[in-house]
Design a protein that fits this description.
- This protein is of the alpha+beta class.
- The chain is built from 7 helices and 20 strands.
- The strands form 6 sheets. The chain has a 6-stranded antiparallel β-sheet, covered by helices on one side.
- β12 and β13 form a beta hairpin.
- The longest helix has 19 residues.
């Protein structure tokens, strides 16, 4: 049903993931366990029919077999038009802190690897993904999920990770707290801290992804975690997992919650952005970065009351400063030579349909260009 929604809404590819499970093997579920399941089953049966839906038992004893990826991909995939990519959400934790990570194009199930702190927990899971990639020869990528979910992950946790190149700058679940709060930075601020720390250390940048966290697709609202809120646009030569992953690893994609870009150029001397405009909508393009010689001093972040866990440290305004801001549908930033990195954020005046929070505006995030090291 979820795949059907995405294909009908014009998506080119979809990576489905669930917590510590692959869509393989024999699994059955009881629709009577809660109201949502019963409604989902009724819609499923109506949409696909009894010849496709496999069930047994009756009433409260009715169970329905979950189709495997291999079974339903044949019903939806079309070469060059729609692609399904296997995924898993490695759902780990350190004590009470959630540590979640997606794997796209995974082949074999990866169990949570655990660790003695949050960063080690993430590193162990990243390492397990990369080891499977080497062992199988199958291209696959890990990405860090919703750092502010349960306030589990700090910027410093991400900054030191080896082999990790992606994190969610936008997640459509209202519980993932994209905008942070008084004690925790929002995802844009966290990203700038991570990029600055990694550039200063001579490490590769981390790219920002946009995703859905679609737990709910029967009903829609700001308190629901719905489909269609966040996605990525990838420039690649063909519709295949290998081509998509290769383009993503080179940063040749952008994240969006509604804004569509006609062109993005990321070169050694400049970043330029051209928007596909909508009538009656205005746009602000902001170029953000940190310059060499920035004030690198930081202080411990403020902990919420009764919390024993550290928060992201507080950094100066030099980190992730606005380097230029342009109103319009196109803009270019030419590097001055004193930047560590530069990235672009596009904010529209259009309210997002079915937002995760009231007043949410449609946006897009362009991957950074690292221009130098400290």
């Amino acid at each position: 049903m979820i795949v059907d929604w995405y294909k009908q809404h014009g998506y080119d590819f979809l990576a489905l993931s669930d917590h510590n499970i692959l869509m393989a093997g024999e699994h059955w579920t009881n629709p009577a366990t809660n109201k949502g399941h019963a409604e989902a089953y009724e819609n499923y049966l109506k949409r696909f029919g009894s010849d496709w839906v496999q069930s047994r038992g009756e009433g409260t004893n009715l169970v329905v077999q979950l189709k495997t990826l291999q079974e339903f991909r044949g019903r939806f995939e079309e070469p060059g038009k729609f692609l399904l990519i296997p995924g898993e959400e490695i759902t780990d934790r350190y004590r009470t802190l959630p540590v979640h990570m997606n794997v796209s194009n995974v082949r074999d199930l990866i169990k949570p690897q655990h660790g003695s702190n949050v960063m080690e927990t993430m590193q162990n899971n990243v390492t397990a993904v990369l080891e499977q990639r080497v062992r199988t020869g199958q291209p696959m990528i890990p990405h860090i999920n919703h750092p502010n979910f349960g306030w589990g992950v700090t910027a410093e946790d991400i900054a030191g990770l080896k082999g990790e190149r992606f994190f969610e700058v936008y997640n459509g679940n209202p519980d993932t707290r994209n905008y942070g709060d008084t004690n925790h930075p929002g995802m844009d601020r966290l990203w700038d801290i991570v990029l600055t720390l990694r550039a200063a250390a001579g490490m590769e940048p981390v790219w920002g992804t946009g995703v859905d966290d679609s737990h709910h697709y029967q009903s829609f609202g700001t308190k629901k975690s719905n489909t269609g809120r966040g996605w990525i646009m990838v420039r690649c030569s063909e519709l295949s997992p290998a081509a998509i992953i290769s383009a993503m690893e080179s940063g040749d994609f952008y994240a969006s919650s509604g804004v569509q870009l006609k062109e993005v150029r990321r070169e050694s001397s400049r970043i330029s952005v051209e928007i596909t405009p909508e009538e009656g909508v205005t746009y602000t393009i902001r170029f953000v970065g940190t310059k060499k010689g920035y004030n690198s001093a930081s202080e411990p972040g403020t902990r919420p009351p009764k919390s024993e866990w550290p928060t992201t440290r507080q950094y100066s305004g030099d980190v992730g400063a606005t380097l230029a801001e342009i109103k319009g549908t196109s803009a270019e930033y030419k590097f001055k030579g004193d930047e560590l990195y530069v990235r672009a954020i596009v904010t529209s005046s259009k309210l997002k349909p079915n937002p995760f929070t009231s007043g949410e505006l449609e946006m897009a995030w362009v991957q950074p260009v690292v221009t130098g090291v400290k």
